[in-house]
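Postdoc handover notes: sequence design on the structure in folder B. Input tokens:
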């Protein structure tokens, strides 16, 4: 069994991985700025219901709790996959990435159901400033999760066909950063958007 720690890489390769990691951190910081702007917009617009539905009218506690549980659990399963990656256990990496994918897909399924239900009740993004800001913020996060799900599938293919090589491990670690970042953003969405709207 070959662990990632046992793999030797050249100094030049190590520098290349560090550059990619630095570039990815820059991307995450720029993404954080985008989400900060979306949060600010939501907080400004949340009171502008234009006589339409308010947060208390459209948010469902059970659905939000289920979405939160799925996404936070997916962060845990990705962490287990990272531990398996460090141990060089390809089968376990694939297993836990698959579980992470299913949990993330469940989250997206619930979110699409939430959006569809709101639109069916006449609470679509065009109805008011509050709903426009809500759909933009939560939809942007959902889009990121969907991209993360595609990335998980790609990485599962790479782990399966290429094994746990240094480049694959490096890409998986960046995927982990991205996935955990999305979980942090969701916790903020839950705390700033859903919780005050339900109380």
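Designed sequence:
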């Amino acid at each position: 069994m070959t662990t990632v720690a046992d793999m030797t890489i050249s100094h030049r390769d190590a520098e290349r991985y560090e550059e990619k990691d630095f570039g990815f951190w820059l991307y995450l910081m720029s993404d954080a700025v985008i989400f900060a702007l979306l949060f600010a917009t939501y907080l400004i617009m949340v009171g502008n219901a234009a006589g339409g539905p308010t947060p208390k009218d459209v948010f469902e506690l059970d659905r939000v709790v289920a979405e939160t549980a799925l996404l936070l659990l997916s962060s845990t399963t990705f962490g287990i996959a990272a531990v398996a990656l460090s141990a060089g256990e390809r089968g376990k990496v694939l297993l836990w990435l698959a579980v992470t994918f299913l949990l993330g897909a469940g989250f997206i399924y619930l979110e699409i159901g939430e959006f569809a239900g709101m639109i069916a009740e006449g609470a679509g993004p065009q109805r008011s400033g509050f709903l426009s800001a809500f759909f933009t913020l939560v939809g942007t996060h959902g889009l990121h999760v969907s991209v993360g799900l595609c990335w998980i599938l790609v990485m599962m293919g790479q782990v399966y066909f290429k094994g746990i090589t240094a480049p694959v491990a490096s890409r998986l670690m960046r995927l982990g950063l991205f996935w955990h970042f999305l979980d942090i953003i969701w916790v903020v969405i839950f705390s700033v958007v859903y919780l005050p709207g339900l109380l």
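Context for whoever picks this up: Residues 1-7 have pLDDT under 50 and may be disordered. Don't rerun without checking with the PI first.
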